[in-house]
Design brief:
Chain B: It is found in: Cell membrane. The complex is a heterodimer. By secondary structure, chain A is an alpha/beta fold. Chain A has helices at about 50-55, 80, 105-110, 130-135, 155-170, 185-200, 215-220, 235-240, 245-255, and strands spanning about 5-15, 25-35, 40, 65-70, 70-75, 85-90, 175, 205-210, 220-225, 230-235. In chain A, about 35% of the residues lie in helices and about 25% in strands. In chain A, strand 7 (about 175), helix 6 (about 185-200) and strand 8 (about 205-210) form a beta-alpha-beta unit. In chain A, helix 3 (about 105-110) runs parallel beside helix 5 and helix 5 packs parallel to helix 6 (about 185-200). Chain B has one domain: ABC transporter involved in vitamin B12 uptake, BtuC (Orthogonal Bundle), CATH 1.10.3470. A two-stranded antiparallel ribbon of chain B has the order 1-2. Chain B starts with a helix and ends with a helix. The chains are: A alpha/beta, B mainly alpha. The interface between A and B is medium-sized, with 32 and 22 residues.
């Protein structure tokens, strides 16, 4: 359980490089993610949470440092290559699905995440039963809308679908970037429950950015706080269990 | 009667342009100006090849290949060179003008007395204008079937996803740059192929024959969509061919009204603009309708 899966070593990431507006977003950040970790990530706006995810995902290239997966250097791997082990759910429900394609077509796309796509027929029909069962576990009517274009779904349904797509082909690392933030409280709660259930069941390794202190405390086995591009707080196990919102608030007051 | 047959034949021959443009305009969701250059490029390539003794079939396929190379250049400028797609297309279109003059050696080359796809025993024995109808049907059935098959493959689905939501496509490991380049290559290949067909049908290639091509190709797409309404993707591809034929009928009517061939580009632009503004008109109409109803039930 404690074998390091993903390591970030001394990662520096700047934006607007070589201009007067140069800002260091990740400042010699170090983080070791162990297999099976479910880490909630807290931090104020601008602390570097989303940038951290973009560095792991390869959307942003880091200026110095190393990113390792199973001890292997992946610092220079492309976004496409990293999708073999990595999947993501974005905050904006519009970003996670293809609006003109149907729910089933989206699922089929996700099933081949990181794999070669050739000129073989897509074979959608034979997957329909499987997808109906799968979407039924979401309990939000998605299974009735398999042939609906995702652009016509509600935000909650779309985000549930995005989450399902991200876990359909088991990722070694799952990144959730405030994936429930754009939803109403009830829908947000339901999706959070589902997320937790699925992460536990599949023993997924997961990092979840959230602004809900309660969620950050309730879910996961480990909690980290990012501040000015560094991990300034990192607790796991029993220590995390003992944490309360009051303690977190006082910690935040200290670092500001 | 023969005017109608001729319009259907022309509609079928030109429909391949609509299908080609559909791949970029509707699926990748951008307007590719390269086609204004690749249409005469296909025509020039084909005519030059036939003049040098190549068989019409090989010359027509060669036009496809040369057209897709032009698409490759636009794609590289756009994805790797980060030049906006509209400008990348205009650059290649402009460059094509010089290339076309080089290929043909002069501005206009005739195919008089040369072999073409239309000059074989079977097509020549058909009544007048039926040759383009028959050839057009064969070409469109083959091309549309291939495109429909492609779009239903794993690769084709990745291609559609790229145009639909690039962020998602990338997060699923789809190389969106490659998809755009591929789309531009196939699209421009088809447009050049269409140029080769039209040149053989007309009996000549002209360096200026590309002017307004994007409007004609768009017209087939838009008229097809306006005329047939809500369709699936596959049906929409078939509707492009029907749209292309309808567009020829519109031109026929316009010419019958007394306009001459020099007015065609102006009229094509007006027809297309009207069709594209239809949703706006509809909304304005519905608005009045709703307003009226609202006043009626106001008690």
């Amino acid at each position: 359980m404690t074998e390091p899966l993903l390591e970030l070593k001394n990662v520096v990431l700047k934006v607007n490089r070589n201009t007067p507006e140069e800002v260091t977003i990740l400042n010699h950040l170090n983080l070791t993610v162990n297999a099976g970790d479910f880490i909630t990530v807290l931090g104020s706006n601008g602390a570097g949470k989303s940038t951290l995810f973009n560095a792991i995902g390869g959307d942003l290239t880091i200026d110095s440092g190393q990113i390792l997966l199973h001890g292997k250097d992946i610092t220079h791997d492309s976004v496409e290559k990293r999708t073999r082990f990595l999947s993501r759910v974005f905050q904006d429900p519009k970003l996670g699905t293809a609006p003109r394609m149907t729910v089933a077509e989206n699922l089929l796309l996700a099933e081949r995440r990181g794999q070669r796509r050739g000129l073989a027929p897509r074979r959608l029909a034979r997957e329909m039963d499987h997808y109906a069962q799968l979407t039924a576990t979401m309990h939000n009517g998605l299974d009735q809308r398999l042939s609906t274009a995702t652009g016509n779904l509600s935000g909650g349904q779309r985000q549930a679908l995005s989450f399902l797509m991200a876990t359909l082909k088991r990722p070694e690392v799952l990144l959730l970037d405030e994936h429930t933030a754009a939803l109403d409280p009830q829908t947000s709660h339901d999706l959070m429950q589902l997320t937790n259930q699925r992460v536990q069941q599949e023993r997924l390794t997961c990092l979840m950015i959230t602004h809900h202190l309660e969620d950050a405390l309730t879910y996961g086995n480990r909690l980290i706080v990012l501040h000015r591009g560094q991990v300034t707080f990192d607790v796991a196990g029993a220590e995390k269990q003992a944490l309360t919102t009051e303690k977190l608030y006082s910690f935040f007051a200290e670092i500001e | 009667m023969s005017l109608i047959v001729s319009a259907i034949g022309q509609g079928l021959l030109w429909a391949v342009l609509g299908v080609g443009l559909f791949l970029t305009f509707r699926i990748l969701d951008f307007a590719d100006m390269t086609v204004e250059g690749t249409f005469p490029l296909g025509a020039a390539t084909c005519v030059a090849a036939i003049s040098n003794g190549m068989s019409p079939i090989v010359a027509t396929l060669l036009a496809f290949i040369v057209g897709s190379l032009a698409g490759l250049i636009t794609g590289l400028l756009y994805t790797k060179g980060h030049i906006p797609i509209l400008l990348a297309g205009i650059l290649v279109m402009t460059a094509c003008y010089s290339v076309n003059l080089r290929i043909m050696g002069r501005a206009n080359v005739s195919l008089l007395g040369k072999a073409t796809l239309f000059k074989n025993a079977f097509l020549e024995n058909l009544p007048q204008y039926f040759d383009s109808v028959v050839l057009g049907i064969v070409v469109m059935v083959v091309v549309t079937s291939l495109v429909i098959y492609f779009l239903q493959t794993q690769l084709g689905q990745g291609f559609i996803a790229t145009g639909d939501n690039q962020t998602m496509a990338r997060s699923l490991g789809i190389n969106t740059d490659n998809m755009k380049i591929m789309g531009l290559m196939v699209s421009n290949g088809l447009i050049a192929f269409g140029g080769a067909l039209v040149a053989q049908n007309n009996g000549y290639a002209d360096v200026n024959m590309g002017i307004g091509i994007i409007v004609i190709a768009l017209a087939s797409i838009i008229i097809g969509e306006v005329a047939f309404g809500d369709l699936t993707l596959n049906q929409r591809l078939v509707a492009v061919t029907l749209g292309s034929i309808l567009y020829r009928f519109v031109l026929l009517i316009v010419l019958k009204l007394g306009f001459n061939a020099n007015d065609l580009n102006l009229l094509s632009a007006i027809v297309l603009a009207l069709c594209m503004m239809l949703p706006v008109f509809k909304r304005a109409f519905n608005f009045k309708h709703i307003l009226k109803r609202g006043l009626d039930t106001n008690d």
